[in-house]
Amino acid sequence: MPKAATRPVVLTGDRTTGSLHLGHYVGSLKSRLVLQEDHRQFLLLADAQALTDNGDDPARIRRNVIEVALDYLAVGIDPEKSVICVQSCLPALAELTMLYMNFVTVSRLERNPTVKQEIVQRGFQRDIPAGFLCYPVSQAADITAFKAGLVPVGEDQLPMIEQSNEIARRINRHVGRELLPEAGALVSCVGRLPGIDGRSKMSKSAGNAIPLSATPAEISAAVQAMFTDPGHLRVSDPGRVEGNVVFTYLDAFDGSPDLADLKAHYRRGGLGDTVLKKRLDACLQALLAPIRERRAAFAKQPDFVMDVVRAGTARAAVLTQQTLDEVRAALGLFSFGGG
Amino acid sequence: MPKAATRPVVLTGDRTTGSLHLGHYVGSLKSRLVLQEDHRQFLLLADAQALTDNGDDPARIRRNVIEVALDYLAVGIDPEKSVICVQSCLPALAELTMLYMNFVTVSRLERNPTVKQEIVQRGFQRDIPAGFLCYPVSQAADITAFKAGLVPVGEDQLPMIEQSNEIARRINRHVGRELLPEAGALVSCVGRLPGIDGRSKMSKSAGNAIPLSATPAEISAAVQAMFTDPGHLRVSDPGRVEGNVVFTYLDAFDGSPDLADLKAHYRRGGLGDTVLKKRLDACLQALLAPIRERRAAFAKQPDFVMDVVRAGTARAAVLTQQTLDEVRAALGLFSFGGG
């Protein structure tokens, strides 16, 4: 593929902490299906990064490498178009991280807003694992190793791209040329999908997520349990649309032109939650049925899935090793070739 | 060599910040000559660690990889008995470091007395490179990757061994068996050799060192410039032995039984610095002449030296990769082999 070299490189991926859910679908998977058509897209199964805050449960992280790969294939990621690879099987990433760690100060890492926020979320306080503090450096290694021009992120992850570009600039300044490209952030315009309980974020651990592999009954149960408007007691009562998870999901997954009318009707009163939920249920069943079926089909071919991930990791290994070699040579590290 | 496997493993080495001097000879090289006779000794040319506080000058670090290897060969390190290898050419060390960083907290690293002291010495204050803060983790990776049972250290480096053993214990506890041996510290009983100016430490950067490659004229000039007793103005004056660098060096390098008499004579008065310095000069010339000659001879065979280092690094690569594979498997990381 001679044209491949000129297509912009996108790096994205997921921590392998659990299988993916509807939040991932809306937030990232959907756009990856578009991106893979005219970009060189690398999907990193970020098991090493997942270990920085799950050091006590590596078995879960390992198991989910293949689960997430299955999710990718299930939603339509095409291994001919996107490269699926395992982070911890790419030694060049660890080596680049170690080199970059000499170009970032501890206080700079401590000031990273994303890290700061996540330290609070995870309740680490003073017991932050060193790997967690340094994970922005590891991300910079990922981004630059693939020479990614574009990294899809949520708004809260922007400081990570900034940190990566800062390191790239420091290295470039140090070696006197544009060795490492800076990455642009592709900020998702889709807001985060709330959990079915209306809490801020859909997450498996909070038990408020609809996994991509959910059965029809699980989907229906989740929709039934969904948070609407606690003040909307009778059908005839006026209802609130804002903060009503069913409407948020309809916005995200239905998107029909008559949604505006539906919202107006709900606000006026006279539209019951049951009607709404039926509509959402049908919509989610239609979305997830083919994904679930493809997932089940791929799950029956573990050798094929393993081969996809193996081949992707081998391609990524060549590319990342090449970048490492370039960085080592440019910084003037020892080599047996050049002495 | 079936016996090799039962010989205790020693890991030692040097940051490749400059070629070695008499301080290294007394402090470590001499004992390595003994250790290599009945240990499996690995000498790590620690260029990656040197970069943690010399990130701005990688060219110097690179150059000195071969300079230090030359010093090793010059003093009599036998590549048939000791393995000389380059740290930055062993990817397993970077990968182990990354894994271990999840088992050490930032505050634990900040409490490390050696790191604390070195932060002050290097004037880093708040601008500590992340790589520098984490270098005890990198040392733990070195020590455990070679499964070293014995690590020769100065007393000020004891916290490093402690940190390494702490990580080994955490990993062992985590995996439920003695995967990584704890290392014993072989504390040098020789005090640090002062610089010729009487300052605490001989170092190339302080300009108070006698390099192993010093010419006869350089040795003599260094001995001439050596700090003695500033109060010892006339030969007949009583002189101080304590803090008198010439005596410190005679203790370290001469060691004849009549040194005690010489000291007594100096203390009484009547013994001139010139006599002392002549004696030390002769002693150092005799010590350094064969080292300098062997060094010059090896320097004329750069291919041989490169081959020694290449072969040593290849051996070390096999060993360290094996440990990495064991750690990954024991922690349950993803692998294409076992799934």
UniProtKB/TrEMBL annotation, chains A, B:
InterPro entries: aa-tRNA-synth_Ic, Rossmann-like_a/b/a_fold, Trp-tRNA-ligase, Trp-tRNA_synthetase. GO terms for cellular component: cytosol. GO terms for biological process: tryptophanyl-tRNA aminoacylation. It comes from the Bacteria. It holds the Pfam family tRNA-synt_1b. Keywords: Aminoacyl-tRNA synthetase, ATP-binding, Ligase, Nucleotide-binding, Protein biosynthesis. Its EC number is 6.1.1.2. One of its GO terms (molecular function) is ATP binding. It is an enzyme of class 6 (ligase). It catalyses: tRNA(Trp) + L-tryptophan + ATP = L-tryptophyl-tRNA(Trp) + AMP + diphosphate + H(+). PANTHER family: TRYPTOPHAN--TRNA LIGASE, MITOCHONDRIAL. Belongs to the class-I aminoacyl-tRNA synthetase family. This is Tryptophan--tRNA ligase.
